Amino acid sequence: MVNQLGFASGPDRHCLASSRFAALVNATYLIMTPAVVPDLDIDTNRVRLNRYRHVLHETMRVFAGWLPRIARFELKCEAGRTIWENSLHVNALYLRLREIQSPAFQAPADPALLRLTAELIHAPDEQGLARAYYGVVAPSLIAALENHETATFPNSDLPSVRALRHILLDLRAEQERVRPLLAEAEEAGRVTARAHTWENHITRLLAAAGGIAGEEKRGDDPAACPAGLEFTPPREAARDERFTTLGADLAAMPAEDEHAAHTEEEFERYSTEVLAAETVAVVIYHVRGMPWEFQLDAARHLYDEIRHALMGYEWMRRRGKDPFRSPQYTHILKWRCQFPPAVQYCLLTMGNEVHAFPYRHRRVEAHQRAGDRLSEQFVRYDIADETQHVRFGHRWLPELLKQSGDPRGVEEFTADCLRVWDQEYRTGRLTLNVE
Ligand SMILES: [Fe+2]
Ligand SMILES: [Fe+2]
Question: Over the chain, what is the mean pLDDT?
């Protein structure tokens, strides 16, 4: 008899060595020599890992640049998740690459791949971008990782194999989530001819690069695509047609002792935290040359804010309210975008985020008193995330200042930003000085 764990019991217990599990044990621990020596040598291995890292890393910035201008809500959330998950994949590959090449971050020596990743951002519209990345680039990356996983040395290169397997898990799940979004857009007639032309162009660029791994027979370099548009960094936040109110007076909120009315507004405000994600995206897009760990922290920060918005959506839907009817306050992003990236990051982390804690703790107590477990849990998770965001602000503002060449010390710089925040954000008088 063999139990659920595969261990022999009863009269069979001495027969384990001859059981069907022996072959499995032998294969796993290579006691039986595999018939074929894997054909992926270590030099090709690191070249390919570097290509995957490059593609995942560059697309973080592409999606960061696009995030504010993606209007379709579900696609915006997915783009945010892609930025965060790609950052985790880049990190996993970086940790492996630094063991087998120096420096760990290197541009691939393949002009065709560099052209592919450089052109992605010039998509004509959000569906063109989504179809090019999720429909063309990501499937090729998945195929490359699947092949790599089995082509490399299973024991000698186990750290790579493990990283690739975990990345594959996320990339396949992403495909499952995004496929219906793309199909729905197509069915609803939101996919333009330009988007289709762009998708074909990216397919040809990928073929010219020999696929993401670079090992397929290469196609010709395609000519410039007339459907592509010169990318201009966004200064405004787009929302789809389901949102009925894009702006509203930020100061109007019921008093906290009007518990039910205040709580409703509290979670309606959560649903608009996409704006914070969009600001972090703008910062990620504009800031080049910051340490990798900054990009990793910022990607997490960005997707946390999408999660906070989704928390607001969940809360409202559970109470039969339509989150698409909540005001979007899109003028806030426009206001922040007129400042340099370091100022935007400071306004968010040292303004909004540092100052939210006394209020959030009062809300936890109010929800506990009201016996409202859902609201209490949501706010406590939010506090945990926001604590990290403030930590990110303290960690990275000095670096951002150094990078931007601002001569002010962090304290003086923060005080100057907070003056603007107090006078303009807190009062709701969001002056737009630059158009
Ligand atoms: Fe938040
Ligand atoms: Fe935050």
Answer: 92
